[in-house]
User: Fold N-acetyltransferase domain-containing protein from Luedemannella flava.
Amino acid sequence: MWNYEIRTYDGRPPSDVVVSPYVEYLLGPADPHLVWFLAVHTPAATATGGLRLSRRGGPTGRDVIGESATVQQLSVDPAHQRAGVGTALMRAAEGWLRDRPNLPRTISLGVETTNAAAIALYSRLGYVVTSRDGVPITFVSGDNHLCQVMVKRL
Assistant:
């Protein structure tokens, strides 16, 4: 049985929510351009998954994508993976954007080219690899991994 509640925050979660170390790193101080989504496992009130969404797109592929909101990070505690948490977080972020017509109608993200499970998840949700002249748009992440850009029009 799915015992998670998706909660949205504009900064740190309330003190009654215990945050998994696998999620803690993506939280941060309030920022008007960021929104956080947490999958809170109930009834224990433990955040076992999180997603950080920027209301602004990144520079990589902007000439092809146009303006977009960007999933900056998605993380699920390994003990809770394969339970639909990542899917629920992505759908919550998409729904949040759909409810705000003044924000971009496109959502983008970067995914490591070797992360087959994440690429499969995003593909199932309707995201496609973005290309320029038939060549996938890629970039090197801050931790030196080759990533490709995937997008979905909402």
The first strand starts at residue 4 and ends at 9. The mean pLDDT is 89.
